[in-house]
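CORE FACILITY INTAKE
Project code: CF-77B
Contact: R.S. (postdoc)
Sample description: multi-component assembly, two entities in total
Requested service: structural model of the whole complex
Turnaround: standard
Below are the sequence entries exactly as provided by the requester. Do not edit them.
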Amino acid sequence: MIEFKNVKKIYEPNDIVLDDVSLTIKKGEFVSLVGLSGAGKSTLMRLLTHELRPTSGKIIVDGLDLDEIHDKDVPYFRRKFGTIYQDFKLLSHKTAFENVAFAMEVSDATPEEIARDVPQILSIVGLADKAPNFPQQLSGGEQQRLAIARAMIHRPKILLADEPTGNLDLVNSYDVVKLLLKINEFGTTVVLATHDTNIVNTIGRRVITMDKGKVIRDQLEAGRYII
Amino acid sequence: MMKHNFKKLLKAGWTNFRRNSYISVAVTGVMALVLMLLLGLISFQFLTARLVTSIQEKVDISTYFKIETPEDQILSVKKDLEKLPEVKSVAYVSRDQAQAEFKARHADNQLIQEALQQLENPFEATLNIRAQDPTKYEGIATFLENSKYRASMDKINYNENRAVIDKINSFASGLRLWGLIVTLVIAIIAMLITFNTIRLTIYNQKQEIEIMRLVGASNWHIRGPYLAEGAIYGFFAAVLSLVLFYPIVYLVSGKLGSFISDVDLFRYFLVNSWQIVLITLVVGILLGTLSSVIAIRKHLKI
């Protein structure tokens, strides 16, 4: 599903953030990407969504070589992903309902589909009664669950979660992780970047550890966060 | 489908407009000022054009015929002149008429009246010629110089008036040129103000646009509602500026009459009202939409 071949990313003039990273993630895997801040986790994620281009090396996602994607096809390519961020990245001028609906609108869903699917997913993440609220009117945990609902509404093949629990307390963090595991059960490949030791150890799946732009450890099963 | 999309777009734009009400009101206000500037320019153009014509209407040339010239000769010159395309009108003033006018003008001057009684009519018959356009007087003067009846003509006053005519012409064309330059400069300033205002509001939403892109929105999905919002700004600004401008013109119009005679600015705005309303609306909506297009372009790089 995802393949990195000798990927190098240098921010000008000579700040090496990813140094010769090679890894493969199979369809349906749940991967925790761990490491200290600045290890290169976020850069790796942003390379995947084609927000950044690698300085050298190859990235292949779902059989597509990212080098060969035309600019105008990037929006379509991004619809393969659902993305969740530490700062939620919700549209502040849109209600909870509209935030989710927007993700459907961009993939040309009909109004009927939107009216049917959005309430459904909102109730899955426990926000059925918050549909008309704006993001500022939701708590941190609610905002992140809304972001997950938005990420999942178009049934993406890959879910990228970049420090999704970074701004949340313990209880809310576990809610988010439970949702991610559930999503993974339905067959979506999940990549979770985090530096939260407890969470990684609870999940106990594949753990890739990064440090200073390099992959220093790749535990395929029952991985733990060790630095 | 097209119609459905358009409606959806307008709705999205309207929602944005409403939810950013504070900024929307500010932008609409600025754009209304810009459009009032435009309406001001229309008035300015109208007034300068009027001023130029009213000055030019005062220009003519006359040719004086010697006293013994028979009238049918003068009338044949008049006929020839009227055939020229550059001539607008030719007025014949006979000797008797000239004397009568002179007498009437000096009716209260006893001395002049008496002197005229003593004399045989000393006035010469004249043809007063008005050209379509004041730059054509030279050609008309040449035509008269080459006329076969030149011998009967006492003088042609073009040469005496030439300096004044030239001055008026250069003043008129200068006024037109400067009017155009001022109009252009102000129009450019107006566009820049609108563009920058809209650019700032869109810059404010930089992060939102970034998020939309991450969710996989195509450029049209992102751009559409902003364009609609820009058009809505323009529409409301146009309405606001018209509502404010007409009463202002009504108040100012009366005062202007005392500077430039027989100019009624308000009447001009009333007679042409539907064109003016249309122009203001079209300019407002175009300005809003185009500014949005340009302002958002920068944020749409993949």
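Facility notes:
- Chain B has eleven helices and four strands.
- The first strand of chain B starts at residue 61 and ends at 65.
Invoice: internal transfer
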